[in-house]
Amino acid sequence: MSTRRLAAAVLAVAAMVALAGTAEAQGGAGADQQGRPARNVPPADQPLIRRIPEPSIAVEGGFGMLGYLGGTAGVGPTWNVRVTGTMSPRLAVEGNYIGSVNQRATLGRSLVMTSLDAGVRYNVLRADEAIVQPFVVAGVGYTGWAGEGGDAFAVSVPLTVGVERLVTRNVKLGARLNFRPAFFDDLSVRGAATQTGGDSWALLAHGGGAF
Question: Which pTM does this prediction carry?
Answer without folding.
Answer: 0.71
